[in-house]
Amino acid sequence: MSEVQTLASRAQIKPKILIVDDDAAMLSSLSLLLKANGHSVESAQGGAQAIARLQASDYDLMLLDLQMPGVGGHEVLMHIRDNKIDTKVIVVSGETSFVMVKDALLEGAYDFVRKPYDAGELLTTINNGLQSRILEQQHKAMGLALEESEKLHRYIVNNSPDIVYVLDSKGHFTFINERIEALLGYRHEDLIGKHFSVLIHEEDLAEANYVFHERRTGARASKDVELRLKINDETKTSRSFETHLLPITLHSMGMYNPQGLNGQNEFIGTYGCARDITDRKRHEELINYQAYHDLLTSLPNRALFEDRINLAIAHARRYKENLAVMYLDVDRFKLVNDSMGHAVGDKLLQIVAERISRCLRADDTLARFGGDEFTLLLPQIKTNEDAGAVATKILDSLRVPIQIDHQEIFISASIGVAMYPHSGETMGTLVKSADIAMYHVKSNGKDGFRFFCDEMNDLYTSHLAEERDLHRALEHKQFAVFFQPKVNPLTCQLVGMEALIRWFHPEKGLVMPDAFIPLAEQSKLIVPIGDWVFRATCEEICRWRKQGLPKIKVSINISAIQIEQEDFVQKIVNTLAEFKLSGDYIEIEITEYGLMKNRENAIQKLLRLSAHGVTIAIDDFGTGYSSLSYLHKLPVNTIKIDRSFVKDIEPGIKKTCIVDAIAAMAKGLKLHMVAEGVETVAQLTYLKNLGCVEVQGFLFGKPQSAQATLELMTMQSDGKLAACLAC
User: Residues 450, 433: contact at Cβ < 8 Å?
Assistant: First the structure.
């Protein structure tokens, strides 16, 4: 059977589809979907199995996941390319980054469908791929048949999706198929005898002269050369072209007459074909655009802004010019977003971007840094007054009321301005300086602008930057809850946990609470941070419960500022109800200072919490100024001995009498006594003898992540914990 007949027979066989994914459930669901729609399907779990199947059998189409352990999707694509395996590949992946999608397309993927997929969209893409596959096989079969019949040659070429042409030795068309009319608007007979340069964009002529005069044949001939062809403007109105140029990839090879002079092969011209790559170019342009622009406002994003500011700085340095960088924050945007909804908030940001843009010159750059923050680059600014005039114009434009959905919204902005080179000579220092100046505006009533000056680099500015980082930590979920075990000193059994917040800063790494909690309390960010800790703790308790672990009480530190909030009790009660938890899962820890600040109000709120089963502990006991006359009025269940007293415990040292006194008072008031900061066996033994019911400290374990805590609690349920603790 000839190759032409083989291809023809394969085109009549039911196409075979190979599904490749590391998720067995995904393989099963995709197989059922495709079989239900009449497709012949096989599965491969993982890239290694996929490569093995490709080596053993032929497939018309493959559905491929990119992210798989071991041999990933990109390795499978490279294997297909390197081994010239003839199959269509449709990527079905949850990886949505522009770089990964672009790489997959460049590596030979036919199309891309994101997980979770829409069944209709996926089936349409598969059918298109199979149809494309059939067309390609038919095209190949027809191409081979060219050698058998001139008539068949004409038929195939004129129905090819590509432009097929033949040039004589001087570059004039001797043949060109009818596809030229559909793509470029030229009648093919009108081009016969014309030089190929009539179709080439002027900027591509140099490269075109090389490939259109190709003399090489076989593997050395030109392949995939990208050029631009000119569209016939006279016929453009009758078709839906968007530009005057058509991007193509060109394949060309030399043609020779074996019966040439003196028995030598005689060069008689060039044969080639050109494929329309408009769709591919559009996809590439879209991917590149999305990589460097904010999708909501269509403004440049941080990456593009950094590129432009670096170029502007280099230009300013060379020609000794000034430039201005502005950092703009929309005042009270969060209030609008929270009260009127994200859709209104998004529309507001788009209007803000439009108004600012109208205040700028063509060479200026406005970028969205994220949220409600914008940066502006103003090159070739001569004086501070010029930059100030632009800032004033922007502020005036933003003060005009904005109408969204028949609602009138009033906004303003805070703008910080940094001038090159006085406020910095690099992109990082200029943006930072403008950011600092903007926060000075924020702290002085908002709705204005200020230029950066060296005096702003003080402790107060540092606090503003840290406060900004705390805001972003909440928005970007940089916090985590760790847990430190509480242990019965007599049995070494785990009896409780204390929830402790940790901050994983993107630049500073792990930040401990004592480095940011004071600032959080000053700025009152402790309220949303505390709410987040409480919810995260409840989520973990539910996780433990689902694992079938024994019930255990978790202590959560509460700030006095949280207690001052009107909805303090209701938020805790509502959160417990949301997670279907009873109050006896939670113990609230509050310091003596927090307890005595506005103590009457605190007492009433703690009594209400106690009525819901929540227990109360006084943290760092002995370091404040609790009044015993109020202590007996509070629903206090536990007092915690501060680590500073526990640290001083040594046999025979008189300072231990403080711990003795606290223990005696706890016993007299019938309160549980918990000691924190236990690090030595001597401290543990001393506290055992005093009747301490719970201890915590490095002797039994440092605060651990939620996952490590789950493993620790699982060990206890298996009876393994006691052997692991230092008892």
Answer: no
Which residues in 53-68 are b (16+ Cβ under 10 Å) and which e? bbeeeebbbbbbbbeb
For helices 342-358 and 333-340, give the axis angle rounded to 10 degrees: 140
CA distance 480 to 20: 36
Q: Which helix (H) or strand (E) holds 410?
A: none
List the end-to-end C-alpha distance of the chain, in Å, as a whole number. 83
Give me the torsion for CA of 429, 430, 435, 439, rounded to 10°. 90
Q: How far apart are CA 327 and CA 429, in angstroms?
A: 12
Q: Tokens representing 17?
A: 């589809």
The angle that helices 278-292 and 98-106 make with each other, rounded to 10 degrees, is 160
Rounded Cα distance, 5 and 3, in Å: 5
Residue 464, C-beta contacts closer than 8 angstroms, at least 6 positions apart: 436, 439, 440, 442, 443
Q: How far apart are CA 673 and CA 666, in angstroms?
A: 6
Q: Are 674 and 637 in contact (CB under 8 A)?
A: no
Q: How far, in Å, CA of 580 to CA of 358, rounded?
A: 53
Tell me the residue type at 514.
D
The structural domains of the chain, ordered by start, are 3-145 (3.40.50.2300), 160-284 (3.30.450.20), 295-457 (3.30.70.270), 475-717 (3.20.20.450)
Q: In what order do the strands lie in the sheet with 448-451?
A: 365-370, 373-379, 323-330, 413-420, 448-451
Reported pTM: 0.42
What distance separates the 2 farthest-apart alpha carbons in the chain?
A: 122
Q: What is the rounded distance in angstroms from the CA atom of residue 361 to the CA atom of residue 697? A: 62
Distance CA 14, CA 16 (A): 7
CA atoms within 13 A on the CB side of 517: 14
Cβ atoms of residues 621 and 655 within 8 Å? no
Return d(Cα 616, Cα 631) in angstroms, integer.
12
CA distances from 706 to 81, 514, 543 (A): 44, 20, 10
239: confidence class by pLDDT, cuts 50, 70, 90: very low
pLDDT in tens, 302-329: 889 999 999 999 999 999 999 999 999 9
Tens-digit pLDDT profile for residues 102-161: 888 888 888 888 888 888 888 888 898 888 888 888 877 776 665 565 665 666 666 677
Omega cis (within 30) before 379: no
**Gap between the Cα atoms of 534 and 203, Å rounded:** 64
The secondary element (H helix, E strand) that includes residue 496 is: strand 494-505
Q: Return the SS3 of 33.
A: helix
